[in-house]
Amino acid sequence: MSDVEYSDDDYYDDEDMYDGTQDDADDDGMDMDNEDFQIDAGPKRKPYETEHESLSQAEVERLMRREIEQTRNILGTDESVAGLLLRHMSWNKERLIEQYMDNPSKLTDAAGITIPEPPSPASAAPVRSRSSRPSSKPLPHKRPSPSKKDEPFVCPICFDDAPGLETSGLDCNHQYCIGCWTAYLSSKIRDEGEHFIRCMAEGCSIVAPDCFVHASLLRDEPETWPRFKELLARHYVSCNPSLKFCPHPGCTNTVSCPGASSKSSLLSIVPTVSCGARGIPGQEKGPDSITVAREHKFCFGCPIDSDHRPVICNVAKMWMKKCADDSETANWIKSNTKECPKCNSTIEKNGGCNHMTCKKCKNEFCWVCMGPWSDHGTSWYSCNRYEEKAGIEARDAQSRSRASLERYLHYYNRWANHEQSAKLSLELYKKTEKKMEEMQITSSLTWIEVQFMKKAVEEADKCRETLKWTYAMAYYLCRGNHKELFEDNQRDLEHAVEELSELLEQPIESDTIPTLRQKVTDKTVYVSKRNEIVLDDTANGFLEGRWKWNVHVDGFDDPDPADLAF
Amino acid sequence: MASISARRLSKELKEIMNEGCPVGITLLKAEDFVSWQFTIQVMGESLYKDEIFTLLFRFDRDYPISSPAVQFVTVDGKVSPVHPHVYSNGHICASILGSEWSPVLSVISVCVTLQSMLASCKKKERPADNDRYVRHAPDNPKKTQWHYDDDTV
């Protein structure tokens, strides 16, 4: 018994295996869409952008139908059987066809389409006979309902025995009343998110086909049917490495991004994608909605649900993990502990006396000046010995040993600061909207003309997101010219963003509005250019293999021992 | 109209009253359709000879579509059997109480399955992760995501 674990490695490993053999041209519906996309691409794609396309649930369902149709034609089964087989095989058509050709009844048994033969032929239970192509006929009911006509039917689940009780059953002919079926299917779909629903009988492996689910839900729970369809689409999307479901709450769109479907591609690109929708569907559009409704941006390559450009997924994940593990601890250590000047053990001071004795090496020292306690003579608690040589040395040693902690906190604090600013941006949006109204009143500017403010806020917000992740990147970049150039670009962007933010916070005075407008507009253009430079250069660096790390990053060469941090 | 769970449980109760429980199982308490208690004892030669355990069933409104929450009672000096699938807090790791639950199973059939689970035990020991699990276990065993990895016991 162990916890259920799952890693996204499985997901990729699987798909890596097929990379070489998969013939996209005739089996993969995505391919067509790519071609369409390229024709429409219009302006040239920037190096930090990744081609992708948004699909609605209906479009995903169309792709599913196409695959089912192709499978059906090859296997000569009906649509329902082809669909169940594909779902059973995680939509891997090649493997499905191979296994089906090998032993069709074994596969249909495993997929819950046919009833497995009892292990010994002597067994008395009359299981319906099967042909070698069991699925060629749609669900024939060879036996009448098992209950004899003269005995009234009693549902074995709810014990309802009302005369004329409507019953139904799957191919296995286990009969239950409609009400129990509806309750069972609904509970499986709604509570367990299950789309592969087996018969209610104990140990029965027959799976309910879509038409049965539909018919059972139709009367009393029609609202559960769309949920079932969504589960089917989600399952299809999760089985296809070039598709990903939009992670934003309530959104049912899917993004197709074949360029980021393999693990290796994620070493050189950051596949930030958007499903095209904004905000939370179904939420009433209030007056604030234009500013609040954010685009559904997410990373196609990893679970981080925001734009982590310019840094690649592996490094971003490493950084997130480090922050989650270390930042609080490191901050606490920094503010509450010191290291023993002699043995460097970390010590927390939990009493009032400054006379410290290291538990480990028994060294006695002063908490305030870090100098040896023996030197303290008569001036014990005033500790006016800052100039004392031993104390200075001890403090030096301490700071050296803390360098790596300080280094981490340097990057972390800047990272966290930009994140915090991004969180506050909602407020800034609201403030800005007020200012825009104010401007319209105090000056002759029209609504269109004051939009520059909103644009500026949006741009600053976007750049802070970039800046935030440049700190994660810089933390792991190994020292050298490339890192220096990277940090020059980072500095230019940060400087520009701060200047723009300051302009945005300025009070509005009617006579300075035209100059402010000019300044803000110019700065916005400049900031956007600086942001592009950072993103462009970093993305190109990944494509050229320019970036070297100071730690081991999966998929990259190990760093030179001389470049290792810490 | 009474809920399905009440109708179903009243029918099960009536059957228990009329036909009695299988050997080794006795109904201890069934005053409502929320929770029932049984005593369970392994008959014949087994590692649990002369031991009597108390089983607690808790039903929600969706019974029998959803499985009952079943565990051994460990209060008032009662203990749970020492068994590789039974935790010291009484929680049981058995697939028929989770993913393999079928609405055609009944309270009595669960009792019988658990009885045979005890009867076939070869070695009295706690699950390997007992301490870790018990420390963090939810009150209701149905909230645990069980991972069934041993079909032999």
Overview of this structure, please?
- The complex is a heterodimer of chains A (566) and B (153).
- Residues 1-42, 121-148 and 284-291 of chain A have low confidence and may be disordered.
- The radius of gyration of chain A is 33 Å and the shape is extended.
- In chain A, the strands form 5 sheets. Chain A has a 3-stranded antiparallel β-sheet. In chain A, strands 2-3 form a two-stranded antiparallel ribbon. Chain A has a two-stranded antiparallel sheet with strand order 6-7.
- The two termini of chain A are 39 Å apart.
- Chain A is built from 17 helices and 11 strands.
- In chain A, strand 4 and strand 5 (254-256) form a beta hairpin.
- Helices cover 49% and strands 7% of the residues of chain A.
- Chain A has 566 residues and is mainly alpha-helical.
- Among the domains of chain A are: 141-232, Zinc/RING finger domain, C3HC4 (zinc finger) (Herpes Virus-1, 2-Layer Sandwich), CATH 3.30.40; 340-401, no CATH class; 404-563, Four Helix Bundle (Hemerythrin (Met), subunit A).
- Chain B has 153 residues and is of the alpha+beta class.
- Chain B has one domain (4-139): Ubiquitin Conjugating Enzyme.
- Helices cover 24% and strands 15% of the residues of chain B.
- Chain B contains 3 helices and 4 strands; from the N terminus they run H-E-E-E-E-H-H.
- Chain B has helices at residues 4-19, 107-119, 130-136; strands at residues 25-29, 35-41, 52-58, 69-72.
- Chain B has a 4-stranded antiparallel β-sheet with strand order 1-2-3-4, covered by helices on one side.
- In chain B, a hairpin with a 5-residue loop joins strand 1 (25-29) and strand 2.
- Chain B: Residues 4-153 form the UBC core domain.
- Chain B: Pfam families: UQ_con (PF00179).
- Chain B: InterPro entries: Ub_conjugating_enzyme (IPR050113), UBC (IPR000608), UBQ-conjugating_enzyme/RWD (IPR016135).
- Chain B: This is UBC-like protein.
- Chain B: Keywords: Ubl conjugation pathway.
- Chain A: Keywords: Metal-binding, Repeat, Transferase, Ubl conjugation pathway, Zinc, Zinc-finger.
